[in-house]
Amino acid sequence: MTRSAHLAGIGSFLPSCRVPNAQLAARMDTSDEWIRTRTGIRQRYFAEPGTTTSDLAAEAGARAMKSAGLAEVGAVVLATTTPDRPCPATAPVVAAKLGLAGCPAFDVQAVCTGFVYALATACGLLAMGCVDTVLVIGAETFSTILNPADRATSVIFGDGAGAMVLRSGHTAGNGAVGPFDLGSDGTGRDLITVRAGGAEQRRSGLAPAPGDEYFSMAGREVFRQAVEHMAQSARAVLGHVGWQAGDVDWLACHQANLRILVRLADVLGIPEARVLANIAEVGNTSAASIPLAIDQAYQAGRFKAGDRLLLSAFGGGLTWGSTVLTWPDLTHP
Predict the structure, then answer these.
(1) Residue 115: CB partners within 8 Å, gap ≥ 6?
(2) Where are the alpha helices (DSSP H) in 161-257?
(3) pLDDT of residue 234
(4) Which of 133, 132, 87, 110 is nearest to 180 (CA)?
(5) What gap in Å lies between CA 10 and CA 330, rounded to an integer?
(6) Are both 4-169 and 176-326 of the same fold?
(7) What is d(CA 64, CA 332) in angstroms, rounded to the nearest whole number?
């Protein structure tokens, strides 16, 4: 029988340093109203000094494993754009912090699409029979790569982590994850990027230009392409699974910008009331945003077994991807 992937547990974690818009407005040319009007964000969380991406990831992972009732998993897949170090990967560090000795662990880098890519990778491990359980984590300390003087990016992003435990199964039913639709377009790499620090810049023989060590984004073009690619990808995966837009109970897409969420729902024909949106409270947490939004909705008791979730994301690369999830009968915390 064909092996499938099922959601067995979920968890998330936010650092304790809450940063309201007013705190950012006090040190840059912006205001609370300007930020809320353009992004829908009221606050975000930044990791405290000394706190790393692996710290956030390990906490979210531990909560997901507790939710699944597991002390061990077969593999760890971490989606992040802000690893603890350029080398080695951060996932083995997370596995070590969770006490998972000898567990295979590796990173996936697809920026804001990272968690969807990591889910697809985990489903592949399960389908091939490599392991029976996978801990999939999205974790970011985006505050470490933001230019504090750039209001176009510094007001949008926050830190956090979200995680899911997937287990193997042989039926569709509640808890089933997939199929997937994934894509990329490397010609758009300059739209969402950190230019300095990689082999390209180092091998150029030139010192980084001022600001190149920070994250940058062409906001207007990213908005247009995000809606376009997420809509196409979402429609493709709905076609694969045989759902119509009206069959979707919850749209759980990457929390990039509130206007993007609303626009995407409108394009897909999904009522705004079915959109999961936590960006006002946590900002854009990149690869962590989808599991974080889903876990917070779960903690609030918004799901029932059998609910149909459509997940979609767009990020640097350019990358995009979508999948579906039928909510399982998880024991509520």
Answers:
(1) 79, 136, 138, 162, 287, 288, 289, 290, 291, 313
(2) 199-203, 219-241
(3) 98
(4) 110
(5) 9
(6) yes
(7) 12
Measured between alpha carbons, how far is residue 71 from residues 95, 99, 101, 136 in Å?
Answer: 12, 9, 12, 15
Q: What is the CATH number of domain 176-326?
A: 3.40.47.10
Instruction: Please classify residue 104 by burial: count the beta carbons closer than 10 Å to its beta carbon, then call 0-12 exposed, 13-18 middle and 19+ buried.
Output: middle
What does the alpha-carbon distance between residue 329 and residue 210 come to, in Å, rounded to a whole number?
A: 52
Tell me the catalytic residues. Answer: 112, 254, 284
| pLDDT, tens digit (0-9, with 9 covering 90-100), for 202-233 | 999 899 999 999 999 998 999 999 999 999 99
> What per-residue confidence (pLDDT) applies to 332?
57
Query: Which of helix, strand or coil describes residue 154?
Result: helix
Instruction: Note the pTM of the prediction, 2 decimals.
Output: 0.96
Contact 111, 140 (CB under 8 A): no
* Beta carbons of 260 and 85 less than 8 angstroms apart: no
Sequence spans of domains, the chain: 4-169, 176-326
Where does 262-307 show beta strands of DSSP type E? none
Pairing label, strands 4-13, 319-326: unpaired
Peptide bond before residue 92 is cis, with ω within 30 degrees of 0: no
Give the whole-angstrom CA distance, residue 10 versus residue 23.
Answer: 32
50 φ, ψ (degrees, to nearest 5): 90, -15
User: pLDDT band for position 1 (50/70/90)?
Assistant: low
Q: Tokens in use for 107?
A: 């990173």
> Domain 4-169 in CATH: superfamily?
Thiolase/Chalcone synthase (3.40.47.10)
